[in-house]
Amino acid sequence: EPLFFLDYVAIGKLRREHVAKVVGGIADGCRQAGCALVGGEMAEHPGVMDPDDYDLSGFCVGVVDRPKMIGPDNVKKDDVVVGLRSSGFHSNGYSLVRKVMVEGKTAEDLAATPECLGGKTVGEALLEPTRIYVKPVLSCLRELPGAVHALAHITGGGMTENLNRALPKHLDALVDPASWEVPTITQMAIEAAGLTDEEALKTFNMGIGMALIVDPAQVDAVIDQLKAQGEEPCVIGSIIEGTGEVAYPEK
To answer: What is the CA radius of gyration of the chain?
Structure first.
């Protein structure tokens, strides 16, 4: 459970309206996570950074009840993997996204509203804020003790290089990418970059921002609890014998 967050903002030239937006976004993230923004630092670096450059960092302190800790040691064969949808890229893979979808494009290109994006511009879809899963996941841990065996936040490295961190050495996660819908903006980036399926699963979250490894006897209860918290969970895989890796069905 997150308790408090501190931020650090380095910027070439302080502009009140820009800083207000940045700090306002950080505060909104803290509200979504149920933690306090207790302080931080704002540093102006004229001559070192360009006036429009900025750098953001921060850290969060949380608490865990050691006897209730979850992780790979709790994962068992036949457990079920439940995925929570992402809102977009979740701030991972943007070096590639910028290269194939922003560089060389005009403001008009980024302001286009393709029908497939449901009225959003390309720029808006690229900048969709990251979803924060703290409250729905904590509700499962509290209301259904023992139901969730492990968690994986699907960040840089995608499903392939994040879900494996929640596995013991003798088990694999067999994940079926066909069991959920990949966001349209992610599909556009994959096509623009010419990525293979394997490369895409190691680069982007592909529409799943958090994965829960769940006791098979309590899958329905976990899904109901998550839905009650406004999530749209889906079963995306299962735990099988293996070597601590993420596997995908052969085509």
So the answer is: 20
